[in-house]
Amino acid sequence: MNQQWSEKLFNDFIQLRDALRAAKRDKNYQNVLSLGMQILELDNAAGFLEISTPIFLTAMAEACIKLGSNTAAEKYFMAAKNKFTELKIKSNDWQKYIDVIDRKLEKLQATSKGPTHHSTGLARKAAQSGEFKR
Questions:
Q1: What whole-number distance in Å separates Cα of residue 11 and Cα of residue 74?
Q2: Could you tell me if residue 134 is inside a domain?
Q3: What is the pTM of this model?
Q4: Which pLDDT value is given to residue 50?
Q5: Residue 78 in contact with residue 121, Cβ under 8 Å?
Q6: Which pLDDT tens digit goes with each residue over 39-51?
Q7: Are 13 and 21 in contact (CB under 8 A)?
Q8: What is the CATH classification number for the domain harbouring 89?
Q9: What is the CA radius of gyration of the chain?
Q10: Domain range holding 85?
Q11: 1 is a domain residue
């Protein structure tokens, strides 16, 4: 479907992106997850914006780690890696991001052998919902 450019949707994305950056800076990890989900939903509704969703999936994974939800973090990292791999077909510029995600996944999987800590349900719910998949 060929969608028309929408300045309103673009501005919505800019506001969400800036709010997510501020939430990361303020270490408000629940807000990072919430804003990340909103960005992913916007990307699904407005594909013409060509939002680089793997970057936001990675931020969400890192927020999950900080919240103690390693299982959710792994799911977000895998989704980000898959998206970066899709983008890599168009350009090899994304390989370094894929390599970083692989290292983070290895570290998570090594530490997840012990007891897993779960934070509030937002991280778990977001990862289980599959909403971050296109």
A1: 31
A2: no
A3: 0.69
A4: 86
A5: no
A6: 999 999 988 888 8
A7: no
A8: 1.25.40
A9: 15
A10: 7-127
A11: no
